[in-house]
Amino acid sequence: MTRLLLAFAPEYLFPLIITAIGFGLMVGLITRKVAFGIIGSIILFLLLSPFISAIMEALPFWVLLIIGTIFFLSMARGVMNSLFGRGAMDHFFGNFLWALFTMPFRIVGYIFGIRRGR
After folding, report:
1. How confident is the model at residue 109 (pLDDT cuts 50, 70, 90)?
2. Distances 48 to 4, 14, 34, 37 between C-alpha atoms, Å
3. What is the mean pLDDT of residues 83-98?
4. How far apart are CA 23 and CA 66, in angstroms?
């Protein structure tokens, strides 16, 4: 989830993030492996950002809506996962995605059910 947050962070925040990582490393809040992983991700995003920008500008609006929805759902799942636990969120999102999947079929069934009743 950290890499997902870094992907959407503006570039002017990266020096502040690197400073916070250095401070956390000095104090002992994070390990060296985690610090190098986050800094490596930042360097990777800085190198790939022109290519990602060009791809995102070339995509149609409906694809961007799908990507935004997936991003929102993954962020919501991460927040809820930290609040309620992994098992509860797996159960909730399973039911939620099943309801989203069956909604068009229920709507079609409702429409045809009304027409049969007339």
Report:
1. confident
2. 14, 14, 21, 16
3. 87
4. 37
Tally the residues of the chain: 118
The domain locations on the chain are: 1-58, 60-118
- Would the pTM count as exceeding 0.85? no
How far CA 13 is from CA of 10, 16, 116, in Å, comes to: 6, 5, 59
Amino acid at 103: M
Alpha carbons 30 and 53: distance in angstroms, whole number: 31
The DSSP secondary-structure symbol of 13 reads G
Task: Please report the pLDDT score of residue 61 as a whole number.
Answer: 92
Q: What is the C-alpha separation between 65 and 10, in angstroms, rounded?
A: 20
